[in-house]
């Protein structure tokens, strides 16, 4: 995590705790000529609404105006993580057990770097066990936690 996203996390965490919301992810990215600070939030039960996003945006904007940790001009976006929410923390993976996921690895496993299927289990020691469909059969693949470059919930269009 960059220094800016760490600073933003320190600013937004008390706001989210006060409102009983969870921080899912923070992105500070340049797209074209513009910089975007994106804060993804959710409720513990899942399902955030636009009023909650607006409330966090307003409170965070006030803090950002005072602290001013970002020197460039940027757009602040506070939103839901969406249907394909990222899996970053161990708790995210544990909560996703039994769900359909997409995992991309740093290096190939059995000749592939991208896997889509049902997350059967996850542990810090063992990593992720995912069941993927290969033609007409199902195959279980173990992926060490250190080899996961990106993971998110996915939508199963074959169901």
Cα radius of gyration in angstroms: 18 Å
Q: State the helical fraction.
A: 25-40%
User: Uncertain segments of ≥5 residues (pLDDT<50)?
Assistant: none
CATH superfamily of the largest domain: RimP-like superfamily, N-terminal
The level-1 CATH class of the largest domain: Alpha Beta
Structural class: alpha+beta
| Sequence of secondary-structure elements | HEEHEHEEEEE
* E-strand count: 8
Return the CATH topology of the largest domain. GMP Synthetase, Chain A, domain 3
N→C terminal distance: 36 Å
Explain the overall architecture.
The chain is an alpha+beta fold and 159 residues long. 25% of the residues lie in helices and 43% in strands. It contains three helices and eight strands; from the N terminus they run H-E-E-H-E-H-E-E-E-E-E. It is elongated and about 55 Å long. The mean pLDDT is 92.
SSE arrangement:
Blueprint (H helix, E strand, L loop, with lengths): L2 H16 L3 E10 L2 E9 L7 H18 L6 E6 L10 H6 L4 E10 L2 E12 L3 E8 L2 E7 L4 E6 L6
Parallel strand pairs: 2-3
Antiparallel strand pairs: 1-2, 4-5, 4-8, 5-6, 6-7
Short description:
With 159 residues, the protein is of the alpha+beta class. It has 3 helices and 8 strands. The protein folds into 2 domains: 3-79, 2-Layer Sandwich (GMP Synthetase, Chain A, domain 3); 90-153, SH3 type barrels (Roll).
